[in-house]
Write a structure and sequence with these properties.
Blueprint lengths: L5 H11 L4 H5 L18 E5 L8 E6 L5 E6 L12 H4 L15 E3 L5 E3 L2 H19 L4 E5 L5 H14 L4 E4 L6 H11 L9 H4 L3 E5 L3 H4 L1 H8 L6 E5 L5 H5 L2 E3 L6 H14 L5 H5 L1 E2 L1 H8 L4 H8 L3 H10 L7 E5 L1 H4 L4 H14 L9 E4 L6 H7 L14 H11 L14 H9 L5 E5 L3 H4 L4 H7 L4 E6 L5 H5 L2 E4 L8 E4 L4 E5 L12 H12 L11 H11 L13 H6 L3 E2 L31 E2 L18 E6 L16 H4 L7 E4 L1 H7 L6 E5 L4 E8 L7 E5 L25 E7 L2
Parallel strand pairs: 6-7, 6-14, 8-9, 8-12, 9-10, 11-20, 12-13, 14-15, 15-16, 21-25, 22-24
Antiparallel strand pairs: 1-2, 2-3, 4-5, 4-16, 17-18, 18-19, 21-26, 22-25, 23-24, 23-26
Bound molecules: ligand MGD (2 copies), iron/sulfur cluster and molybdenum atom.
Cofactor: Mo-bis(molybdopterin guanine dinucleotide); [4Fe-4S] cluster
Organism: Luteolibacter rhizosphaerae
Pfam families: Molybdop_Fe4S4, Molybdopterin, Molydop_binding
Length: 738
């Protein structure tokens, strides 16, 4: 069987010149194999880090062949100012791993994974998914993707799957991460628009971090906090005494999921005492109803739910409403990953709005995102929103996108996709029979992950497209498509402060692995829908298509010419609309809503609220501990597929799972440091070594998410508005092992 079927060879010739024998023998090279001319004379290129959404720029040092041999953080970049965390410094390490997927792997009837060429892999992909579609319709196959590939690739996937292959359901692992912030902003501001710039960390008088462990999860953003010369109060609201809480000026150790009650009580005090900003409230809708609602949330009324005293709450309310002080609210997964995360995020948005802390330096209700391109996926993945910051339900948006992409309008369905959990539930019911997983590892990272292992049996065909063949998800697949990773391809990411930045190809992908972009292009061809994607020749061509789609939307970036301009400007924050010739270049750091005009039809922000609900799985006599989960160290990344491959990073974190437990609980159970203990929930169990520390309260435990068994314990419950999983609180019990 030839490596490429004739149709693919034709396609490759068309866009990359003739296929030489070399290229066929070593197709990792094909098309993109030649070292791009622009890399040759340079000794370094820049690239945005491929881990977290901080979006640090790295300078990659190249040898004569244009291959990166080392890196250093970029001094002049407005995000990281010459700094990087351990993951950034070691970003090249994971590329060389022996566990890289270098050829497609296909499971045979006996269950063995066989190495196959691209032709067989892609023909199998197309024939299996086509036959499911013919037999069971367009709702029988779904994709689950990522916040960690360039948005040109995300958009290609979303458009290919929905408009080209004609399926309906696709969601991204960003659902696990910031669907809550997306929904909160959309409902309150009329568009998913984190309003801040990182400079706001440096310009704030009161920095409130809610469920956010910056020191570990966004170490360079913590460095930005440290550059603040205004002697700020730094308040951390977190049930754990995290590294960040220990470094803060005040730690509010509230009960898990006490946030919503606490935030309402703060608003209660502020409204009661008239510490509000009438001009700012003028720019909102719903203040009267909100004030009436707050009557029930006096500090006294919420002491039980928050575990805080009346005095603590009153004092905090005064601090966050000090007249003349710039107050900024920042939240991450302690808020988003909750069964009532949207309302908790909106409770912070409400506080910022009623105290006038929005649209000014050092203020804002600011969601910090997680993955390097979470923000790109929010605008371009074509999952929840129609590509380019549009809405599937709005006919004008569908017409605009169809015209912009050059595809027939009827290819764009007005129906929404199922959300992640609904896709998996449909698979459990046997309605979804085929699944395509791209650049995410849900067999480890999804909540209550045992359910995934169980539903695997129900799936007729599972495709996993990853850099490694050894991830928990890849091991479960019928077909593994080997993908190039960060450093092996071009494209753009968007960071938490809405800054577009570029990444560069500085290494060859191993074996015959291909960039995701290339894989999507080949799939369009074998599927027979390549006509719809003729303009998607390379990442920068796709960038231009997507850029033009944003015209007139809040995320308008039509002023960006191309990658070179992005690099020249030190990254570009959206919006960046096209300007008249000679008009001044906008400032490099910009915040939104300086004019107090929001994206709602009335231009006013909405104050949204609803009563707190009980924790879905509260502790009881049988399962008396609340389990918290989250990031362990700055050297570990999620399911460890990448950070676990770096010899240096591996020395910087514990190799095996450990559970943080309060000294009182340890004494009661008779366990010592390093003893093994069994942590059991209603769904699963794991063994972990004991780490005794007062960082958690008695009755609470913390397990880092990086160990594969952790999500066997967590509880499938979801925010009703965002459908984000409630990863951070479930009931468990402990048993001493030895
Ligand atoms: N080193 C490293 N950095 C990362 C990542 C990584 O894997 N490793 N992942 C990236 C990604 S994708 C993300 S999303 C971010 C996550 O960044 P963070 O959200 O900062 O990290 P987490 O540890 O998941 O959660 C933050 C805190 O929420 C607290 N928390 C739990 N329950 C509650 C609650 O009910 N209320 C409040 N107020 N707090 C609560 C936890 O105790 C924890 O300290 O990090 C990004 N950066
Ligand atoms: N208990 C608990 N669980 C959690 C969380 C928690 O706090 N607690 N946090 C949740 C959050 S916020 C997140 S973001 C998720 C993260 O969950 P995942 O996204 O599942 O975790 P990763 O390990 O980052 O998986 C990314 C995968 O993509 C692959 N990959 C990397 N680059 C590329 C590429 O360019 N192309 C392709 N094709 N593959 C690539 C990697 O090898 C890896 O297998 O975990 C969630 N799970
Ligand atoms: S802080 Fe985030 S973006 Fe910066 S180097 Fe570390 S992982 Fe990369
Ligand atoms: Mo995340």
């Amino acid at each position: 069987m030839p490596l490429f079927p004739p149709v693919l060879s034709r396609l490759l010739k068309q866009h990359h010149g003739p296929l030489t024998a070399d290229l066929v023998l070593e197709p990792g090279n094909f098309g993109l194999g030649r070292v791009p001319a622009r890399l040759k004379p340079a000794s370094a290129v820049t690239s945005i880090c491929g881990y977290c959404a901080t979006g640090c720029q790295l300078k990659l040092h190249l040898d004569e062949q244009g291959r990166a041999i080392n890196l250093s953080p970029q001094a002049g970049y407005p995000v990281n100012l010459g700094m990087a965390c351990p993951k950034g410094w070691q970003a090249l390490d994971p590329l060389d791993s022996a566990e890289r997927a270098t050829v497609p792997l296909l499971r045979d009837e006996t269950g063995k994974m066989l190495r196959v060429g691209w032709a067989e892999a892609l023909e199998t992909f197309a024939s299996r998914f086509k036959s499911l579609k013919e037999q069971h319709g367009r709702e029988s196959v779904a994709f689950l993707s990522t916040g960690q590939i360039p948005f040109e690739e995300m958009a290609f996937l979303g458009c290919l799957f929905k408009f080209g292959m004609g399926f309906l359901h696709g969601d991204a692992n960003t659902r696990q991460c910031m669907a809550t912030a997306v929904t909160a902003y959309k409902q309150s501001f009329g568009f998913d628009a984190p309003p801040y710039s990182y400079a706001d960390f440096e310009e704030s008088d009161v920095i409130v971090l809610v469920g956010s462990n910056l020191c570990i999860a966004h170490p360079i953003l913590w460095q930005r906090v440290m550059r603040n010369r205004r002697n700020p109060q730094i308040i951390v609201i977190d049930p754990r005494a995290t590294e960040t809480a220990q470094a803060a000026t005040r730690h509010v150790m509230l009960k898990p999921k006490g946030d919503l009650s606490l935030l309402y009580a703060l608003a209660h005090c502020i409204v009661r005492d008239g510490r509000i900003d009438p001009a700012s409230i003028e720019r909102t809708e719903g203040f009267e109803e909100f004030s009436a609602f707050l009557a029930d949330y006096s500090p006294l009324a919420v002491t039980e739910r928050t575990g805080m005293s009346v005095e603590e709450i009153e004092s905090l309310a005064r601090t966050v409403s000090e007249p003349g002080k710039r107050v900024s609210w920042w939240w991450t997964m302690g808020v988003n990953q909750s069964y009532e995360g949207v309302r908790a995020a909106q409770a912070m948005i409400n506080l910022a709005l009623i105290t006038g802390n929005i649209g000014k330096p050092g203020t804002g209700a600011n969601s910090i995102t997680g993955q390097c391109n979470a923000m790109g996926s929010r605008l371009f993945s074509n999952t929840t929103s129609l590509v380019g910051g549009h809405d599937f339900a709005v006919p004008e948006h569908r017409a605009k996108v169809a015209a912009g992409l050059g595809i027939p309008e009827e290819k764009i369905s007005s129906e929404p996709s199922l959300a992640y959990d609904q896709i998996l539930a449909a698979a459990e019911e046997g309605k979804i029979k085929g699944l395509w997983i791209i650049a995410t590892n849900p067999f480890h990272s999804w909540v209550d992950s045992g359910r995934l292992a169980a539903l695997r049996e129900k799936l007729e065909f599972l495709v996993v497209q990853d850099m490694y063949y050894t991830t928990e998800s890849a091991r479960a697949a019928d077909l593994v498509l080997p993908a190039a990773g960060w450093g092996e391809k071009d494209g753009c990411f968007i960071n938490s402060e809405r800054r577009v930045g570029t990444l560069k190809k500085v290494r060859q992908a191993p074996g015959i692995a291909l960039s995701d972009f290339r894989i999507f292009r080949l799939i369009a061809s074998v599927w027979g829908c390549e006509d719809l994607f003729v303009r998607w020749t390379d990442p920068e061509a796709a960038f231009r298509l997507l850029r033009d789609l944003t015209q007139g939307r809040p995320c308008d970036i039509t002023g960006i010419e191309g990658y070179e301009m992005v690099d020249g400007l030190g990254g570009v924050q959206w919006p960046y609309p096209a300007r008249e010739d000679g008009a001044p270049t906008p400032a490099s750091e910009r915040r939104l809503f300086e004019d107090s005009v929001f994206y709602t039809p009335s231009g006013k922000a909405k104050l949204l609220f609803s009563p707190p609900a009980p924790i879905p799985e509260a502790v009881d006599r049988e399962y008396p501990y609340t389990l918290l989960t989250g990031r362990g160290t700055s050297s570990q990344w999620h399911t460890q597929s990448r950070t676990g491959k770096s010899d240096i990073l591996r020395k910087l974190y514990p190799q095996d799972a450990y559970v943080e437990i309060n000294p009182k609980d340890a004494a009661r159970l008779g366990v010592k440091e390093h003893d093994m203990i069994r942590v059991r929930s209603r769904r699963g169990e794991l063994e972990a070594s004991v780490y005794i520390a007062p960082t958690v309260k008695p009755g609470e435990l913390f397990l880092p998410m990086h160990y594969p068994e952790v999500n066997r314990l967590t509880h499938s419950s979801f925010d009703p508005h965002s459908r984000q999983p409630n990863y951070k609180a479930c009931a468990v019990t402990l048993e001493k092992v030895r």
